[in-house]
Amino acid sequence: MNYSSRFFVEFIKLAGPFWHSENKATIHKLTLGLIVFTIMQIAIAVLLTEWSANLFNTLDQRSMSGLTKQIVIIALILVANVIVTSNHLKMKRQLQIDWRSWLTQRLIGEWMNNGRHYQITHMEGRHDNPDGRIAEDIRIATEYAIDLIHSLFYCLLLIVSFTQILWTLSGHITLKLGSLEFSVYGHLVWLAIIYAAFASTLGWVIGRPLTQATDARQTEEANFRFGLVTARENSIAIALVRGESTERNRFLHLFKDIYRAWQRQTRAWSNILMFTSGYSVFSMAFPILISAPRYIAGFISLGALVQSAQAFQQMAGALSWPVDNMAKVAEWRASVERVLGLVDALDDLEKKNKDETQQRIRLVKSEESVLGFNQVCIAKLNGEMIIGCIEDQVRQGEHVLISGNGATAAKLFKAIAGLWPWGKGTIYLPDDEPMYFMPPRPYLPRGTLRSAICYPYPVSAFNQADLEQAVDAAGLNDLLEQLDHVDQWEKTLSREQMQRLGLVRLLLVKPKWILVQEAFDSLDPVGEADMLRLITERLPDASLLTIMNQPTADAFHERRLTL
């Protein structure tokens, strides 16, 4: 199977299930309605050519009554066209947004699931900027697909409808080659086919580089956008270290890549426009010039001349669909390939996680309240071991301090969470409660401060008294009056305040298993000790695994696990 065939097969596998999804009845109705209204558009186009022929014949005959009749007919055609066009647009746009919604939900569901959004960042392949692929490329892939399929169907109907009209209007002509004479029937049809075939072939050759140029530009645009978003999310850190000049240089470097991709796309597009602009002008004059000798010779009427020219234009335009949609096809294909790249990466990740022949860290539910490690080795993606042969158990209520390299220890926590499967051995998880992780920087989504604290639970999960008590215990009384304010709290609050809010969240949830990864490193040693004391006092029965380098941490742990 060649590349093009494989591409369309992959696209159909990706998007085809939409027509068999839960809302298939509505989808089928919209699709059928779109087909019906498209056929009605063709009928109106045919009526318009016949009306034009009758109008010019009426003008040629200088008939006032005939003119009045044609005015009434065009008014009826106008009303019908308005109704058909408006309903057609509504159905097409509804189908587009429904398809985009379905595919967006599917990809977000696969991406934001069981830590795949994190694991995929460590995999090789062309799946960078998943946010751009989901937000923008899915839009183009679905909207343009329906636009292109509809326009292709419309053009096929035009060809079927106007071939008969043009064949009838062409009559037959006699060609003489020396002593030979032969009749040609439907010469305008053959000319339209030859004309469009030549233009389409030449157009595809000229426009071939546009697909690669469009894909390159979209990739560079996504990289630039991602760089800006990253800088916005880390604006405080950049400002504190005076990193603005470095960021400016990085942005300019990324924009230079956009500039080069833009110029490459411009060159490819300019070649197409030079061709299509000349083609569009010539296609207006060509059918009139071809049919004019027969009108001058008196073989056809003025109305037939005009109708021949219009039918030729319609048929040639329909046959020129590849030329007219070349740029759109290029952009659509580039976006589909970017979506498929993300889908393939997620599928590959899922297969690797389920492949029992490959060494992976296994997570098994224990039958007792124990976190156990059986010959657990943690590796890099290339297979190099970085933590070897952990053989240990943490029992309910036990406090264990994990020492060694902080980044390496963090991978152990990720392995417990199922986010780092690379390595070997078995981790036995307690069967009673899920593990509660406290990262160095808690995620505080935009919204009210109350909802940010309660995340990922709804605010209704905790009562006001418990919330206020936890905020007070964490030393954040000054934030109580802002609980219902809406803000970007990751930008508004200091790192220390965010880490203290992480403790508030912990005190509200009251988990039995707590894994603390340098969650209070912005506090001084006394502050860190206060946070640990609060955890041990408020949650005395909880198991505690802590990654922390402060000497004061030893007082709150019963033993040390050194990596």
Describe the structure.
The chain has 563 residues and is an alpha/beta fold. The protein has 2 domains: 352 residues, ABC transporter type 1, transmembrane domain (ABC transporter transmembrane region fold, Up-down Bundle); 201 residues, P-loop containing nucleotide triphosphate hydrolases (Rossmann fold), CATH 3.40.50. The chain is built from 18 helices and 13 strands. The chain has a 5-stranded parallel beta sheet with strand order 8-11-12-6-13, sandwiched between helices. Helix 5 packs across helix 12. The longest helix is centred in the middle third of the chain and has 53 residues.
CATH architecture of the largest domain: Up-down Bundle
User: What is the total tally of β strands?
Assistant: 13
- The biggest beta sheet, please? 5 strands, parallel
Into which percentage range does the β-strand content fall?
Answer: 5-15%
Give the terminus-to-terminus CA distance: 51 Å
Instruction: Quickly count the domains.
Output: 2
* Helix-strand category: alpha/beta
**What's the helical proportion of residues?**
55-70%
The total of helices stands at 18
CATH-assigned homologous superfamily of the largest domain = ABC transporter type 1, transmembrane domain
The global form is: elongated
> What is the average of the pLDDT values?
83
The CATH class designation of the largest domain is Mainly Alpha
